[in-house]
Amino acid sequence: MPIELQDGQSVSTVDPSVDVSVFRDTSDHVLAAAALNNGINPDLISGHSVDSAEARRLMRMPLDELRKVQQIPFRRFEHALAIVMSVVLRIDLPAMKFDITGWRIQFGEPATALSPLDEQSLYEKRQASGLDNPVAMMQRLHPGLPAEKAVDLLTENQAINSSFAMTAPPIAALRMRRHHSPPKL
């Protein structure tokens, strides 16, 4: 049905929409400023990608440091939670009671693993300076492994290596055989 207007009246359209880019840009600026104030790269917050794993690791370093700081209150809470759980279980479920000594949760994300070559090189340098030992290395390779079991594994590895060294031909003899063998036709 057509609209009938009297003389002197007109119809126009009013656009009530608002350009939201002003608000979006402001919120992005606030987010980037908050990230920078806390030492975090704004590209990490906004989800921008990087070209290499090394660049990603460098971009995540401030966030990893912040998480390390957060582990301290988590550990305090964990200790209080363990005490409460132990007391409640001792009273309500005596069959499941436990001693809180040594009870813990491993908080935090593991760091980017080193390559096996870099890990071995770091271990050798630390061991040479007295900062590391084979038992600790074995426990890092197998998280949760008790020290006694790590010693048993190392003893077994050493026995296998020494028996192999006794039965294997000397490396010098193998090299001599390789260099002095007649040419194949």
Give a verbal description of the structure.
There is one protein chain. With 185 residues, the protein is mainly alpha-helical. Helix content is 61%, strand content 0%.
**Computed CA radius of gyration, to the nearest angstrom:** 33 Å
Mean pLDDT: 80
Task: Spell the H/E element sequence.
Answer: HHHHHHH
Percent of residues in β-strands? under 5%
Helix content: 55-70%
Helix- and strand-based class?
mainly alpha
Poorly predicted tracts of residues: none
Give a count of the beta strands, DSSP E runs of length 2 or more.
0
**Largest sheet properties:** none
Note the total helix count: 7
- Morphology: elongated
Q: What are the SSEs and their pairings?
A:
Elements: H1 21-37, H2 42-46, H3 53-92, H4 116-128, H5 134-141, H6 147-167, H7 171-179
What's this entry about, in short?
This protein is mainly α and 185 residues long. Helices cover 61% and strands 0% of the residues.
Attribute tags:
mainly alpha, 2 domains, 61% helix, single chain, 185 residues, 7 helices
